[in-house]
Design a protein that fits this description.
- There is one protein chain.
- This protein has one domain.
- It has helices at about 5-20, 20-25, 30-50, 60-80, 85-90, 95-105, 115-130, 140-160, 165-180, 195-220, 225-230, 235-245, 250-280.
- With about 290 residues, it is mainly alpha-helical.
- The radius of gyration is 19 Å and the shape is globular.
- Helix 3 runs antiparallel to helix 9 (about 165-180) and helix 4 packs antiparallel against helix 8.
């Protein structure tokens, strides 16, 4: 298997691990910021072990990626409290649009027509998927969710910028920042029960730690847009875990929306993979990842 295909498998695996967050958080009765802080602290510890000897070069990209990561978490948690979960997720996953727009300038990774089609179809699918939950409850919450779409886009761009360096260390630093912001909310409140601590450990180790280890490996091999597009599978997979473990069944229209997102990501990936060999035959020196 080529490095590119391994990276795409890693991205799908990362999105699958991220998607476990919804069902695991349902097992927790604790302050959301405390959950965020402890989860990030556990993830930081795991990433430090994986990195063995983290390489902190304190470059603008490394620090910027860490700040963008922490900002995404800090914006998204209160957004979910202020507005509907559907609004928060949908507004956050406008990120592919920002990656496509800024990536051409920041990374010289110009999106092609198939990329824009995949973005439009994915966003349309997500609107269908979350249609029943869409209702503006708070302008502030909606604005925070929309801002998290910008920050996750820049996190992706800045991690990709470090493709020849150490993107994992950016995520490690970001988790340390998020932990510092969230852990103070754990004091003065009853500690979680045994089930709650089990969920916290799974959130830190599986949902954040392992997922971002896979994501930072993959981001070295794929374009920023490919990374964020495959990541849109996360909110679609989330309710599947809830269905399997809690019995909450998604509506038929949601299934149609999920199928659209999955189709858009898959077809775009197959299209780009099919075209890449012919391009390399025409230009043997073309080895860098590219959009269609």
């Amino acid at each position: 298997m080529s490095e590119k295909r391994k990276a795409l498998v890693a991205l799908v695996a990362a999105a699958s691990l991220w998607s476990t967050g919804g069902v695991l958080i349902k097992w927790l009765d604790w302050h959301p910021m405390a959950i965020m802080g402890v989860r990030s602290a556990i993830a930081a510890a795991l990433l430090w072990i994986i990195a063995r000897r983290p390489r902190f070069n304190w470059s603008a990209a490394q620090i910027g990626g860490a700040v963008a990561y922490a900002a995404t978490v800090l914006l998204y948690v209160p957004a979910c409290k202020l507005t509907t979960a559907a609004n928060a997720i949908l507004l956050q996953y406008t990120a592919p649009v920002y990656v496509a727009l800024f990536g051409a300038w920041f990374l010289k990774e110009k999106p092609g027509w198939i990329d824009w089609v995949a973005i439009v179809v994915s966003l349309g699918g997500m609107v269908l998927f979350f249609r029943e939950g869409l209702a503006s409850q708070s302008l502030v919450g909606d604005l925070m969710a929309a801002a998290s779409g910008v920050t996750i886009a820049w996190m992706t761009l800045l991690l990709r910028k470090q493709k020849s360096a150490a993107p994992l260390e950016s995520v490690l630093l970001g988790n340390l920042l998020a932990a510092a912001a969230g852990i103070p909310f754990a004091f003065g409140r009853p500690a979680p029960n045994l089930q709650g601590w089990g969920a916290l450990i799974l959130l830190g180790v599986v949902q954040l730690g392992l997922s971002y280890a896979l994501y930072t490996y993959a981001i070295k091999q794929v374009t920023a847009l490919e990374a964020i597009l495959v990541s849109t599978l996360e909110p679609i997979l989330n309710p599947i875990w809830v269905l399997l473990l809690l019995g909450e069944r998604p509506a038929p229209l949601a299934l149609v929306g999920g199928a659209l997102v999955l189709t858009a990501v898959t077809v775009r990936g197959v299209w780009v993979a099919a075209r890449r060999p012919s391009r390399r035959q025409a230009d043997p020196s073309a080895t860098a990842p590219e959009s269609a």
